[in-house]
Predict the 3D structure of the following.
Amino acid sequence: VQLQAFGGGLVQAGGSLRLSCAASGNIIRIDDMGWYRQVPGKERELVADITSGGSTKYADSVKGRFTIFRDNAKNTVYLQMNSLKPEDTAFYYCNAQILYYSAYDAPVASRSWGQGTLVTVSS
């Protein structure tokens, strides 16, 4: 199973970006999905999380500016980032709790990470 993230880039302060992250593989079910971010030298922190039922939670620093949503049919989670600030600059990682079939057709539960995508917000 694989998570692949898209959508990072360079944007001016006050601008917007949308990140997406698609899961692929022999997936049975995806439970919670989320976005984390990390600045070199600091710990990775939760940005936003969404359950399979659509319940969300956000870091205080992004509430009112970022929106997480998902398309279960596409196994994809999105992060809409508005009113971006220079302090939002970081590598963003998607994460998901996935139940999938292994190569031996056995169900396996795993928390998977996507590759980081860099978001740079200039002042």
About this structure: The first strand starts at residue 2 and ends at 6. The chain has a mean pLDDT of 96. DSSP finds no helices and eleven strands in the chain.
